Amino acid sequence: MQAVDTPGSVPPAPPAFADGKEPDALRTIGEVAKALGLKQHVLRYWEEQFPMLRPLTRAGGRRYYRPEDVALVARIDQLLHREGYTIRGARQALSGKAPARPAPAAAPEAGPEPAPRTPGMPAEDEIIAAIRILRRHLQTIRHRLADALED
Q1: CA-based diameter of the chain, in Å?
Q2: Is the pLDDT higher at 87 or at 147?
Q3: What is the DSSP letter of 59?
Q4: What pTM value is reported for the model?
Q5: Comparing C-alpha atoms, which of 37, 29, 18 is closest to residue 80?
Q6: How much is the average pLDDT of 99-124?
Q7: For 120, which of 38, 86, 95, 146 is 20 to 30 Å away at the CA?
Q8: In Å, what is the CA distance from 29 to each residue of 54, 60, 69, 71, 106?
Q9: Residue 17 CB contacts under 8 Å (≥ 6 apart), including other chains
Q10: Given pLDDT bands bounded at 50, 70 and 90, which one contains residue 125?
């Protein structure tokens, strides 16, 4: 699926790969993460949150990103980390259902400015969602261990 650019936004430049592969070669999750300055777990999380992001998977669950997948990841990164979209807003923007720009936040009456986010660092809602996923996995493990101990 092709990303929809919002009016007035500049599409991200494709990442530069210095690995000697052809430009249309498949890339591993590690190669994509390194080229875009992201963590691999962020890319895996985005696959859960953005249904249009579906890299090829091979035996053992190894992911291979096509050039259009890499471009989509770069666009998601731009929306979330540079344009200030939430995950939901970015998902809507990519599907063409969102307003051109995220609604500006109301100016705080008083108080300190929020700390700037480091590029590649997951947003708070991403962290919360990842913790919830981890909690479900841990609960599953706990139940399996309890069942194994009963046997």
Answers
A1: 62
A2: 87
A3: G
A4: 0.57
A5: 37
A6: 57
A7: 95
A8: 12, 14, 11, 13, 38
A9: 23, 27, 31, 35
A10: confident
